[in-house]
Amino acid sequence: xxxxxxxxxxxxxxxxxxxxxxxxxxxxxPLDTAADDAxxxxxxxxxxxxxxxxxxxxVIVGPAQREAAALRGATIVADDPYLYFARLTQWWARMHxxxxxxxxxxxxxxxxxxxxxxxxxxxxxxxxxxxxxVAAGAAIGAHxxxxxxxxxxxxxxxxxxxxxGEGCLIGAxxxxxxxxxxxxxGFGFAAHEGEWIKIEQLGxxxxxxxxxxxxxxxxxxxxxxxTVIEDGVKLDNLIQVGxxxxxxxxxxxxxxxGIAGSARIGRHCTAGGGAIILGHLELVxxxxxxxxxxxxxxxxxxxxxxxLFPFDDNASWEKNAATLRQLHSLRERLRALEKKS
Amino acid sequence: xxxxxxxxxxxxxxxxxxxxxxxxxxxxxPLDTAADDAxxxxxxxxxxxxxxxxxxxxVIVGPAQREAAALRGATIVADDPYLYFARLTQWWARMHxxxxxxxxxxxxxxxxxxxxxxxxxxxxxxxxxxxxxVAAGAAIGAHxxxxxxxxxxxxxxxxxxxxxGEGCLIGAxxxxxxxxxxxxxGFGFAAHEGEWIKIEQLGxxxxxxxxxxxxxxxxxxxxxxxTVIEDGVKLDNLIQVGxxxxxxxxxxxxxxxGIAGSARIGRHCTAGGGAIILGHLELVxxxxxxxxxxxxxxxxxxxxxxxLFPFDDNASWEKNAATLRQLHSLRERLRALEKKS
Amino acid sequence: xxxxxxxxxxxxxxxxxxxxxxxxxxxxxPLDTAADDAxxxxxxxxxxxxxxxxxxxxVIVGPAQREAAALRGATIVADDPYLYFARLTQWWARMHxxxxxxxxxxxxxxxxxxxxxxxxxxxxxxxxxxxxxVAAGAAIGAHxxxxxxxxxxxxxxxxxxxxxGEGCLIGAxxxxxxxxxxxxxGFGFAAHEGEWIKIEQLGxxxxxxxxxxxxxxxxxxxxxxxTVIEDGVKLDNLIQVGxxxxxxxxxxxxxxxGIAGSARIGRHCTAGGGAIILGHLELVxxxxxxxxxxxxxxxxxxxxxxxLFPFDDNASWEKNAATLRQLHSLRERLRALEKKS
Lengths: 341, 341, 341
Prior knowledge:
By secondary structure, chain A is an alpha/beta fold. In chain A, the strands form six sheets. In chain A, strands 8-11-14-17-20-25-28-31-34-37-39 form an eleven-stranded parallel β-sheet, with no helix packed on it. Chains A and B meet through strand 22, strand 23, strand 38, strand 39 and helix 5 of A and helix 4, strand 40, helix 5 and helix 6 of B.
């Protein structure tokens, strides 16, 4: 990668530079493995001992580490070093990324009535359905399908092989990773004489602005009304979002989370990897679910909630798990003893 | 959406109409949010208080709610309102859907020897392999791959980007959602000197009639014999079905379920979201597995089975989880006390 | 399928043949369902009673079953019958598979600067990005995207619809199943005033030789450094591998496993289906995680580790689960009793 001078970085992103403005940075790197052409950051005092040892050309630190860092060499002091680093990665990606092109690749299939802004990009072998809208600055990657009447907002990027179903919409500045399926049918059936009668899913999916959706994640369309993902939501890979779910603004879910139909998740919530939220529940704002926890009833009070079996060496687990199956009777025996004593 | 008159609905689907046959319905909606041009349904007495308040033009109810509903306004009385509603959604989708076309999109790649019925539809950029069969009324969406010797039954619809592997087959009236992978290799290896020697997967996948498969779900091909999904099975999104599994007719699995190799699931079984069924097990007919439960041994008696850690606020969970790791010794201590007392 | 004579099999794979070398085998089959034109194997004494009953034309057995098997009919004696069977399936697949072709399908999109070996195959509607390398003998299936600067090693096969992101690489003899996403962005954000600020993911994914990756599995690119999958690793379907994870050589993970960011897994480790390994942990070599277990801290000692709630009939589970939420207080009550007694 071509280098940038520290002066360019602080000109673009702010922060106080201690050291040589002309120093050339060729990569961003973690503190512990940074080479002498790298810019690293110290976001947590826990890593303070790495600061003295790092070979990094320059380190981004908070005000409290100002002196320690300056003794070592070039330093950028920022109020929130992790936030500074996040913005630096964005700036770095823009500096080193290719310029986005506009236009329609000749191999794409554009159905009659699709409306594609001249400043949008449609990649190779993409399919854009009738009456679909693709706004200015949007980029539709290779092998994407944007079905009839769907709408893609300004500067939203669908990476390769994203499916946006009929009538679904996503707002501005979204990032959708490969394999995502928006708007498949929700899982709805009426039981009748031992068989399942399909309930056609007549709603759609509405996604707000600044939403990022990870690879192979699925968001089903609503049965009658829409499934809704509000602004600023971040979903990791391989997440399942059932029909008629609503996820409030700025909530974030880690990989492999499952959210069953009609669950209503508040704003600023988080769920760790593999958590499951059952259907028709409500989680208020600022609820945080620990990884692999199964939420089986509504949560009406903000806070952290957990429920996972603590792992152990297999022999210990076996003994405890076997006992667990008698736990209720153990309690009865304890009660009996208490009465006696 | 263009409207339909209540008379048309009862003419098509039956039920007793109380009220004005000429009333025009423009949408289907939930009872609580229905506008005055909507048809809603009351499937469970739990929602009875919504009946009086709803603005819906007409409500579908069971015989027990006949009087209460009629007082309110236009009503359709049906023996099973939820089933009536399911059929109504199907009828509605047919009325408002586009007419299915037949033919082969010019951008599709059809390999020599593929047999495509003239009344089937092959969408843009689909690939149909040698000697594959696509039956009358089948629809193969954009970016699907139907590999050599695979067979797609009558009126089965593969939504966009479905993969049907070599020699795999699906029966009639199936619905397969985007991203589904049928017939990838099962996970089979022989351990040898610390390495894994691949066992080629020589079986296929056979899927019956009236099966629906959710987005990004995977069904692996068998090692020697076939993986089998019987008639009427419904699988939600992001489900993993290992090699040589058999799922009995009319069973249904919610999102994120995992079924390991050679498990045999009976007929009319269900599994909640995130449940895991280990390999080489048998579940008899009418077994119901609660969400997130891990089935570690065969179940030979119909019924509901569960095994998930109850969630709690994080502090309570931490205390209980820590104690759980000493549960076996607590039992020993209880026994000691019991002997003494 | 056309048949092969037993003599051909032992000529290719070794083993001692007892019986008629000219006997024709038309299929490989499990011991219990084998027809009289099939070759079966007995890998475990547990299945010994099936040996007498099988209709198989010939059975592969270990030295200990030599006599019993020979009494029954044609037999191949091998030191490790399961390993012999694995190699037989490979030989069988080669014998019966179509010959791999080389070349570029006319419907593929090859961007300028891509380097494709003349002995590689690029399937229909694949997209190969600028400066990507595809080595000799590699096969890129229908609808794959190999993005700019990615590298595909010799004889590696991407089945249909695989995504290899910009700058990612996979070594030789890999097998990647449909729907796999290599090199989507890792899930990294800095929290700022209630919103999530994206950390651009500037690393890539590096995959070694002889790696197999199951359908719809995702491996994210690193934030600053690369996510690394070492030689001989086997990943099943629908697995999530977060950014900066390292999986050591010859480790194997079953379906639906989730590995959070920056976890470091040793060599020769295994994880059962649905296991979750949290981020920033270390697992040393030869650690084995039971299905559905959640690993919440580093494991520095080889062995088997477990942590899952034992399932039960629903009524029993409910009683035990309810009691579990009072477990800590039960311990306190037990302590109180112990003091008294």
